[in-house]
């Protein structure tokens, strides 16, 4: 099945074949759609269970906070960033980098900022809809500072890019020429907002491929494309809560992921890509539901443990309730959060250390860091 056409263009003095994809939706046979019904039902059932798990969690903000940061870390790792979850928390809450580089941590924190911005816009009456403009704003936030500052943050590329290889002539894939990008993105945006007979999960899978094929930015296309999956789940109201992020699956199956994307472009093999995508949705939804329950159980058990400690103070209990959204914390933060003196904060920290709920990171004499280690371990 033909999914696009090649256009001869010149890049750095070399003649290359740039690929221009056809508009969505993809054309699937009745047989292909019938064969996808089983994987589709399994993925939808897993999402329904994840929705139910979200409804049963008393403090959902805790889990959304944690899941977004895990997604940011894994999505950035696919692009070669090397950071740890605990270093991300340390950087966010205490501006300490740990064993990770500052550039790697900035990329992850920028991803969190972009995701939070997009989610707030989609849920605000005066916010931007899911659109090219919204994605540009996300891209702008994603590439702030560090490595991305010179890659035209928030702007559609004005030059030809390529994927793989050392130069355009030996590239694995050459996306559309820059003068085609605006029209292709406009068509993609219209598709997102128009009706279509394809099930929503297949539409999301198709939009992801189309965006990655257009490759509209000089850098950050993969991260924005994976972010787009989560935003479409929200936009089409498939999930009530932003708890599904596919980067863990795409990272584990990275070679198959790239092969599946390429098979759409070279062979028109939409069915293989849809199978791969639906399997990922099912696996990640099941894992997310289990992990949400584990995190809730962890917090409940730790709360019960703390309550059974003789002489535990109200201040220590108040500090504990802040830990899921402050999983790495410092003494000055405790004094601010609880509006208490340093000695009182110290006693609360010591009480949580005695139970193993808080662990000190490193051996600093000043600006000591404490982590809610059991909680972070479940996330990892």
What features would you describe in this structure?
With 380 residues, this protein is mainly alpha-helical. It folds into two domains: 4-30 and 61-290, Fic-like fold (Orthogonal Bundle), CATH 1.10.3290.10; 309-379, Winged helix-like DNA-binding domain superfamily/Winged helix DNA-binding domain (Arc Repressor Mutant, subunit A, Orthogonal Bundle). The protein has 16 helices and five strands. The chain has helices at residues 30-35, 37-56, 60-78, 85-94, 102-122, 132-142, 178-193, 200-214, 221-235, 247-252, 254-267, 270-307, 314-322, 331-338, 342-354, 373-379; strands spanning 4-11, 14-21, 328-330, 359-361, 369-371. The strands form two sheets. The protein has a three-stranded antiparallel β-sheet with strand order 3-5-4. Strands 1-2 form a two-stranded antiparallel sheet. Helix 8 packs across helix 12 (270-307). The two termini are 41 Å apart.
Quick gist of this model?
The protein has 16 helices and five strands. It has helices spanning 30-35, 37-56, 60-78, 85-94, 102-122, 132-142, 178-193, 200-214, 221-235, 247-252, 254-267, 270-307, 314-322, 331-338, 342-354, 373-379; strands at 4-11, 14-21, 328-330, 359-361, 369-371. The chain is globular.
